[in-house]
Amino acid sequence: MNNPHDERAREQIEEAKDQVIQSISETMDLYGVTPAAGKIYATMYFENQMNLDEMREELGMSKPSMSTNVRHLQQIGMVKKKFQRGSRKHTYTAEKNFFHSFMAYFCQMWEREANTNMEAIHQAEKPLLEIIHDEHVSDSFKEEARHHYELLNQSKVYYNWLDQLVHSIRSEEIFEFLPKDTSQKD
Amino acid sequence: MNNPHDERAREQIEEAKDQVIQSISETMDLYGVTPAAGKIYATMYFENQMNLDEMREELGMSKPSMSTNVRHLQQIGMVKKKFQRGSRKHTYTAEKNFFHSFMAYFCQMWEREANTNMEAIHQAEKPLLEIIHDEHVSDSFKEEARHHYELLNQSKVYYNWLDQLVHSIRSEEIFEFLPKDTSQKD
DNA sequence: CAAAACGTTAAATTTTTTCTTAACAAAGTT
DNA sequence: AACTTTGTTAAGAAAAAATTTAACGTTTTG
C-alpha cells in the first residue's frame, strides 16, 4: 500500500475529485445553497454514504454546521437520509442522479412561484375590478385600474405555463420531447 | 380629483399593486436577487419606465443602491436601459414578459452550470484515465479511479440534456411541446 | 468657464447570514 | 441509574453582503 505509484495515484484521485467538488459547489448557488452546503453535497457525491462526523472530518467544520446544511440539502431533495440499522449514527446519501435533483428543486420552486403569485394576483384583481365597474370613479383611475388588471391577467398565461412545465417534468413527459441522450458527446 | 371615490380608488390601486409587488419580490429569490432588487423590479413592472431618482423616491433607499441593484437586474435580463433623448437621466424599463425573464435567466444559469462542470469533468477525467491504464497502480486504486470515472461520465448525460434544454428554450421549440395557453384558466 | 445634475465608485456602516462553542435532549450502553 | 453517544437547539462570534454617505468623474447648462 505504500507503493509510490499508489501514493501518486491516491493524490491524483483526490485532486481530480477536488476539482469537480469545487466546480459543483460553485454552480450550486443556482440551487440556493451556500458554498459550504455545496461542498458537502459534492463531497457526498463521491461517497456511497456519509455520517455527520465524516462530513465534519472531511470539511473541517463543526457538527452543527453539518447538521443544518444537511437538513437544507434534504429539503431540496439533494440528500436523503439512509435508514441504517445497527449504528446509531444517521447516514446520508447524495442524490447522484442530477436529473432527480433538477426535477425536485425546480419543480418545488416553480410551483411556489406560480402559487404565491397567482394567489396575490387573485387578491389584487378583486379591488381593481370593483374600481373598473364603479360609476363614481373618474375615468383616469378606471383606466389605471384597467391597465393594471390587464397586466396581471396577462401574466397568468406565464404562471399556467409554469404549472404545465412542472407537470411535464414530474410526469417525465418532458423527456419525450427532450430525450436523455446517452450517446457519448464528450 | 379630490373626489372621495377617486381617493378611495387610488388607495385600493396602491394596495393591490403592493400586494403583487410583495409577492413578486418574495418569489424572485429564485432568480438570485435580493428582496430590494426584487422590489425594484416589481415596482417597475407596474410602470412604463423609471429613472433612478424615481426608484429612490418610491423605495425610500439611496441612489447608489438603486444603481447597483438595477445593474444586476440588467445583467440577468430583467431590466433594460431605455434610450431616451432629451433627458439626461437614464430611464429603465422592466421586462414585463415573464417568459423572457424566465428564458434569459435560466438559460444563462444552466449554460454556466453545464459549461463549468463539463470543464471540470474533462480536467478530472484525464488523470483518472491515466491511473486506470497504469500497470503499476494496485487494483484497489484502479477500481476507485474507474468508479469515479464512470460517475463523471454518467453525469455528462445530464449536462448534455441541460444544453439541449437551453437550446430548445432559446429557439422557442419548447413552446411547440408546451404551448403558451392563452385560454383563461383563472 | 463655473455651477449643477447625474451616475458611479470607494470607504465605512449596518444588517444579515453563517458558523462555532456551549448547553441540552433523546436514546443506548454499562 | 449513571454514563456515553449522537443530534439538535440556543446564544454568541465571525464572516459576508447590502446599504449609506461621501467623493469623484463626466456631461450639461447657465
TrEMBL record, chains A, B:
Organism: Oceanobacillus aidingensis
Domain of life per record: Bacteria
InterPro entries reported in the protein's UniProt record: HTH-GbsR_regulator, MJ1563, WH-like_DNA-bd_sf, WH_DNA-bd_sf
Keyword Ligase: no
Protein name in the entry: HTH-type transcriptional regulator
Gene3D superfamilies assigned to the protein according to its UniProt record, in alphabetical order: Winged helix-like DNA-binding domain superfamily/Winged helix DNA-binding domain
PANTHER family associated with the record: HTH-TYPE TRANSCRIPTIONAL REGULATOR MJ1563-RELATED
Key words of the record: DNA-binding, Transcription, Transcription regulation
Family: Belongs to the GbsR family.
